[in-house]
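task queued by scheduler; priority normal; single chain, no ligands, no partner chains; default sampling; output format set to C-alpha cells
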Amino acid sequence: AGIGVGAALTGLRPIVEFMTFNFAMQAIDQIINSAAKTLYMSGGQMGCPIVFRGPNGAAARVGAQHSHDYAAWYSNVPGLKVVMPYSASDAKGLLKSAICDPNPIIFLENEILYGRSFDVPKGDDFLIPIGKAKVARPGTDVTIVSFGIGMTYALAAAEALAKEGIEAEVIDLRTIRPMDIETVVASVQKTHRCVAVEEGFPQYVPMPYAANLEKLALPNIGEVVAAAKAVCYR
C-alpha cells in the first residue's frame, strides 16, 4: 500500500490488491492518512489516484479475522470514495471508472459473489459512473436499499414479498461514498417506506467459525421480509 501511494503521488494509477480487507489494517496509515488526505492537505496541488481492492465481509467459515465488514467504516473517512458492486457487470464498469478517478478509491468485493455468474457487457469502453445508484427492481409499496452481497437478500426478499401482495422497489447503491441520496429519496417519496439491508454485524459479535453460528450472525431473507412487512403494517 505504501509503494502504491508513492506511485500514485508520482503520477501513476496503481491498483493495490488485498487478499482480504481485514489485512488492510496493516496499511491503515497509508490509506487513511497518506492517500485520503493528500489532496486536501496540499490545497489541491497533489492528488492520489489509487484503487485499493479486495474481498470484504464474511465469506464462508473463514473465521472472525477474515470476515470483518469495512463498508461503513471506510465510508466515514473524508477523502475516500467507497464502492461495493453486486454484479460482475457493475464490478467491471465501476472498477474501470475507479481507475480513471483522480481520488483514492476503496473497492470492496465479496468472496461469495466471486463464485456466482452474471452477464458482463463486452467492450473496453463500458463504464459505470461512481456515485450513481441503480433501481434493480421497481416497486410501489416499500423501498429496500442495499449494496454488495446484501442485494442477494434484498432481491430474494422482494420476490417473496410480491407473493404476499407487497411490491418492493430494490435500490442497489453500488457506491457507498458518495451516496446517491437523490435516487433513494425519489423512491421513498413514492413508497413512503424504507428498509436498509447491509451485512455488517447486526448481532454485535465477531463472526463465528461454525457454520450454524455464522448463519445466525448474518442477515437473512426472512429478516428482510419481516422488516418490510413491519413498515408496511402487515
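post-processing summary
- The chain has two domains: 2-114, 134-231.
- The mean pLDDT is 95.
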